[in-house]
Structure formats: structure tokens, C-alpha cells
Write a structure and sequence with these properties.
By secondary structure, the chain is an alpha/beta fold. The chain has 17 helices and 5 strands. It folds into 3 domains: 113 residues, ATPase, nucleotide binding domain (Nucleotidyltransferase, domain 5); 122 residues, Helix Hairpins; 122 residues, no CATH class. The chain has a 5-stranded mixed sheet with strand order 3-2-1-4-5. Helix 2 links the parallel strand 4 and strand 5. The longest helix is centred in the middle third of the chain and has 32 residues. The chain is elongated, with a radius of gyration of 27 Å.
Amino acid sequence: MNVVGIDIGAARHVAAVCREGEQEAEKAILRISSRRAGFDDLDRWMTRHGDVGLVVMESSGHYWMSLASHLRRRGLPVALVNPLSAKYFAKSRLQRTKSDPADARTLAVLGMSTHPTPREPLAGAELREAARFAMTLVTEQAKVCQRIQRLVDLGFPELRDAFEDPTCVSALAVLRQAPTAAAVQRKRATTLARATRPGGGRAIGPKRAESLKALAEQTVAPPELERQVGFELALLIEQYDLLEGQITQAESRLAGLVEGDVARRLQSIPGVGPATAATLLAEIGDIFRFTDVDQLLSYAGVHPSRGQLGSQGRQPGDELAHGQDRQCPPPRRALPDGHGRCAAQPRHRRALRPQARGGQVQDERPGALHGQSARPRLGCLAWRSGLRSRLPRLTRHYGT
């Protein structure tokens, strides 16, 4: 049985073969494009090499998906390996060369030596893509909230005295009608009292409207920026509303994708809704690849490591000396991209929705979700929703 190793690239892939009984891959390699012509060249090349029993590739971003789907449709077993596994396997063989052909040969030898288990490569890919897309929309909305808060500080800073969160439903209803303190002064109290969210809902009422009028009279907002702040706020609130509708659609699609007994069991855990259950199912994948609960906890990034439990044998000041050996859990309120967030507002219908944090810079650029591995995503999710103590139950949920 021959093993083919494929190094995945954005535009081109490199394939190498290790023949049965050999400990080294052949020097000859095949460079193919990531289009149909390249896939046809790969098919002919593997046919010339006889019986191919396994194809090994790394799960590099999203570039491997098209090729893995093509190979599975041809009936070839595909094994996806962690890039770290390939890296340390190459180091164990004292390999110093780092190039696409060398990586392809390493993957071929790794497949011949360790015989990784072939699995359905795109199983759960649709659910995983849907969950990550929904989380991306939530992150984009959180960045819009940060910009809205900055403009509120410039145009109507006293709004924070009336609303704890200037991006809550009632505050946004006011900002849609009067985005600045000067605009609030020009509005009648009866008009402000009827301010509601798009689509209807409870109005803010005359008492809150009179309070806003009094605050606007004492504003310290610079009048030189009043027109520009109003213009920017109107556009940002439109963008916020657009994202709100898209998030609702994305969550509805997620709820339709997580149907099943396992999803229902997960949602029976307090604090776990369709979005969280979909993320757990998508990122964990096949739970039976973990031999015990400790492996699952370690994969999620919430398992205690050496030096985290107890203080026996420690001397004062050892915390600094052993700081690199300690694995600190992610913040309890961390966003999927690692930034903090404030607590959810009372009666907020999506308690896990990230919100803007006071003092954040408006131009922060958190990393893209699809560029992160599953470990930090699951770790932040577990700490954020209090799932750390409940993760061992997932094994029983899957196994029953």
C-alpha cells in the first residue's frame, strides 16, 4: 500500500509518494494547481503509482477542503493531521529543510510510519462554517458598538447617566431620533417619549424623555462636532440594525442544523443555546477520537496543567519563576477573538452576545475567527458560559 502526502497551498499543492515497505519518500514530486486541471493531473499521477491506500494532508486553513472532497468522491481514504504533529515528526527525523516538497515527503513518511486513521474529512463542515460565521457577525456588531460609544462620548456624553449601556435597545431608540445632545434639545419631549426600536416595542416614556431633555441642557459636548457626529451615528446605527437582522438569520439557520438527540442534551445544560451547542458540536467533531475526558478537556484548553493546582513545595516568588510552566485559563468574559466584554444587560435576550467594553479603542482589529484553532475557541467558550465543570458530561451525552 502506497501513501501519498500532499502539502496544501493557496494556489498550488505539492504531492509526494512513499512506497510500501520504504522508510523514505521518493524524491520525485508533483506540483498541481488548486483547480480542476490540477486535480485531473493528480488523478493520473496516482494511477501511475499503483495502489494508493492513504492520502495524508494537513488541515491548513480552508485550502484543503476542495481537494479532500475530490479525493473522497474518488473513494480514496483521506487522513487529516494536525500541523504540529507533522512539525514534530519532521524534527524527530532531524529534518532541517523547510519547503513544500520536503513537507509533502514528510507527510507521506508520517502516513507510512504512524498509519493515521482516515476519517470523513468534511463531516460537520457545514455546521462548523455556520457557527463560525454567526460568531463573526457577532464580533462585527461588537466593533460597531465600540464606535457608537465613542461617538456618544463626543455628541451626548450625558446619555451614559440615563442608560448604563449607550448601545442598549432604549438608548439606540433615542439615538435614531436624536443622535446628539443638540438634537435632543430641538426635539419635543412628547416626540422623544414615543421612541421605540424598529418594528415596535415599548416606548421610553415621558419620564425618561424629560430626564434626557434636562441632561441635554447641561451637555458638555463640543458643538463644533455636532453635525459630523450625527451623520456618523446615523450610518453606524443602520449598520448595527443590518447586522442584528443577519445575526438573527444566522442563529435561525444554526438552530436548524443542530437538530438531534445530542444537540437537545447539550441545550439542556443551563446557559447553552443553539449557537453554543452548534459551536461545541462543530469544534469537537468526532468525540470518539478522545480516549478519555482528560483529552477532551485538554483539547478545549480548560484542563489544569502542572503547577496550577496546589502550592506544595513552592517558595515565595516561585510564581514568577514558574510562570511559563503555568497554563492560565482564558478570561471568563473573553470574546471569541480574545478581547474582553462587559456583563450582559438584564433581560438581554442573548446573554452571550458580546458587548463593547468601556475605554476600548475604536480601531481595534481583533483576529479573524477562521484564523484561530479550535482550542482557544472552545476554551473561551467553556469559561465564558461556565461549561468547564460540565465538559465531562459531553462524553456521556455522546455515548448514550
